[in-house]
Amino acid sequence: MAHFDLPLDQLRSYRPDLPVPDDFDDFWARTLSESRAAGWAPRVERVDAGLSLVDVFDVAFAGFGGDAIAAWWQVPVGQEPRAVVVESIGYSGGRGHAHDTGAFPMAGVARLVVDTRGQGWNHGSGGGATPDPYGSGSHAPGVLTRGIESPETYYYRRAYTDAALAVDAARALAPGLPVFVTGGSQGGGLSIAAAALAGDVAGAMPDVPFLCDFPRATTLVDSMPYAEVRTYLAAHRERVDEVYRTLSYFDGAILASRATAPALFSVALMDTVCPPSTVFAAYNAWGGEDRALEVYPFNNHEGGGGHQRAAQLRWLRDRLA
């Protein structure tokens, strides 16, 4: 795929005029307050992951409505971690295997890798361990239109709350340590939500984030998962305004304006899954002044891959120096 979105100089200033619901902040404050009231202390059980340099624990913490959310807590052996990274998962993935530690524990940083409720059907990720015990009306296959009739019932109300409360869980597991949030694609969108909603995170590293600038994303590309919205609206022609009103409560380009922590984003200019303009919409709206963006001109949704992980490790090290 060649470059198909706005030229880079226009992307750098792209700020869509997205409608913000009048009760946007009240909606999220109420949602988090109700779920925190139903919360409970994280449950932790050590597991034998076959590793000698990283200790791994099976964790359950209270997410939306007090629902149990599964996670892996991975801590470097023989040293006190310098920080915690809460990592959210890409669309259709699960938390994976206990031994899938990634680079962060090797850098002396504890990692809480969080399952995504109702997902984990991508067998390459090792599957998920967290159900989503809520029904919904008619929706396209996948979760992007599940419960989309109302922000109260929408799937991502639960998933965003889980992401924010994962930060609470990390603070309970490692009191006093700075907490960073990260993730790629859907995980990038969830990290934006966590940074905006959890409050006082030390930093955010959204990698080629999904779930941003819904009006543009759902009309610019026909790739999955955004195509789920198109599929739904092709059948429910009368619900266009209703659907976009619901999505406005969950738009990462709006939530980003509520986030003030330091941030390192990435974008790929040939990304047909999360179009570049939608990533720039969130980046340009970010509420904090300490922000940076790695641009990969010739990559699709794989973004920077290992290059971006190296950039994240350098960025994290600089903030912990």
Describe this structure in words.
This protein has helices at residues 8-11, 24-37, 155-173, 186-198, 214-220, 227-235, 240-248, 252-255, 276-285, 306-320; strands at residues 43-47, 54-62, 68-76, 84-88, 110-114, 179-184, 203-207, 263-268, 291-296. It has 321 residues and is α/β, with parallel strands linked by helices. The protein has one domain: 3-Layer(aba) Sandwich (Rossmann fold). Strand 6 (179-184), helix 4 (186-198) and strand 7 (203-207) form a beta-alpha-beta unit. The radius of gyration is 18 Å and the shape is globular.
Major sheet attributes: 9 strands, mixed
- Shape verdict: globular
> What percentage of the residues does DSSP assign to strands (E)?
15-25%
Count of separate structural domains: 1
Region (Disordered): 121-141
Domain Acetyl xylan esterase: 1-318
GO molecular function, one term: carboxylic ester hydrolase activity
Active site: 185 (nucleophile), 271 (charge relay system), 301 (charge relay system)
Q: Top keywords for this entry?
A:
single chain; 321 residues; alpha/beta; Rossmann fold; nine-stranded mixed beta sheet; 10 helices; 32% helix; globular; AXE1_dom; Acetylxylan esterase
Task: Give a quick precis of the structure.
The chain is of the alpha/beta class and 321 residues long. It has a single domain (8-320), classed as 3-Layer(aba) Sandwich (Rossmann fold), CATH 3.40.50. It contains 10 helices and 9 strands.
Topology:
Layout: H1 8-11, H2 24-37, E1 43-47, E2 54-62, E3 68-76, E4 84-88, E5 110-114, H3 155-173, E6 179-184, H4 186-198, E7 203-207, H5 214-220, H6 227-235, H7 240-248, H8 252-255, E8 263-268, H9 276-285, E9 291-296, H10 306-320
Parallel strand pairs: 4-5, 4-6, 6-7, 7-8, 8-9
Antiparallel strand pairs: 1-2, 2-3, 3-5
Helix pairs in contact: 2-3, 3-4
